[in-house]
Amino acid sequence: MTFTASAKPVVPSRPPAVRRAWRKLSPYAYIAPFFTLFAAFGLFPLIYTAFVSLYRVELQTPGDMEWRGLGNYTALLGDEFFWTALRNTFTIGVISTVPQLVMALGLAHLLNYRLRARTFLRTAMLLPYATSVAAATLVFAQLFGRDFGLINYVLGLVGFGPVDWQTGTVASQIAVSTIVVWRWTGYNALIYLAGMQSIPTELYEAAEMDGASRWRQFFHVTLPGLRPTILFTVVVSTIGATQLFGEPLLFEGSISGGISHQYQTLGLYMYEQGWGFFHLGRAAAIAWVMFLLILVLVGANALIARRRSRKEAGR
């Protein structure tokens, strides 16, 4: 009895040239879906917005486009409400970003120690961030009510008169900033906490052996180790402050940002021009002004951080 081995199927091998070409092109094929989506939903709207900003376009007749060149941009420079919105964006951004990051840094420092229910506290930090901006703003609008708000009730208990949080310029900006601080402090605290846990424990042990207190450890070990993380949160918070829209829109329900535009931001001003007055060309110009403003602010933050790093490296 004899056995015959079955012949193995012959698999045609790829030519060397095709194989080399596939090895070079296959990585691009894997990342092509991302760049396709980015080009369709990111790059194209950006370029088209720049194109529309050079024309007079009305929402009722988007097909009728009249060339204006830089006319939409020069019209913004002569509009007092644009400068009011720009000033409000800056002031609300400052009074919301600075306390937010300082409080987040303090909370992260506390959560970095061994506390009871530490996991629960860390999870609770994300609850304001997970809350809908509409729900949070409507609740805070009730809290800051002039006649029946809880904030004015508490102020009355300590001897202060009622504050009109929706009409006063400073009061309304503080109220809007409070919503931003409440929503984003926990999010930034967890980012700082992750950065703190990446700092080597040997540095703290060496500082403790040298007699450094916890405050000195915080200023001389924690803060230098968190410098890249702090720069990241400053940049992200700056971008978010420039694009602030939901909180001022829902605080009173007006696209004008109050009776005298006292808390109207650039995002709300753009919405008012495009969907309130139907000037799509001017709204597109405002969008590009916001984009360029973000680039300038982010570049300034990066330049300051680079100069400081060079100065410390030269010591």
Q: How would you briefly describe this protein structure?
A:
The chain has 14 helices and 2 strands, in the order H-E-E-H-H-H-H-H-H-H-H-H-H-H-H-H. By secondary structure, it is mainly α.
Describe the structure.
By secondary structure, the protein is mainly α. It has one domain (80-313): MetI-like fold (Orthogonal Bundle). Helix content is 71%, strand content 1%. The protein has 14 helices and two strands. It has helices at residues 16-52, 71-77, 80-111, 118-124, 127-130, 133-143, 150-157, 169-197, 201-209, 214-225, 227-242, 246-252, 266-276, 280-313, and strands spanning 55-56, 66-67. The chain has a two-stranded antiparallel ribbon with strand order 1-2. Helix 3 runs antiparallel to helix 11 and helix 11 runs antiparallel to helix 14. The protein starts with 15 loop residues before the first helix and ends with a helix. The relative contact order is 0.12. The mean pLDDT is 86.
Question: Strand pairing plus helix content: what structural class?
Answer: mainly alpha
Radius of gyration: 27 Å
In CATH, the architecture is Orthogonal Bundle
Tally of strands: 2
Count of DSSP-assigned helices: 14
- Helix content bin: over 70%
Q: What percent of residues are in strands?
A: under 5%
Give the biggest beta sheet: 2 strands, antiparallel
Helix-strand string: HEEHHHHHHHHHHHHH
Under the CATH scheme, which class? Mainly Alpha
Distance between the termini: 89 Å
Membrane topology: Multi-pass membrane protein
Keywords: Cell membrane, Membrane, Transmembrane, Transmembrane helix, Transport
InterPro entries: ABC_transporter_permease, MetI-like, MetI-like_sf
Subcellular location: Cell membrane
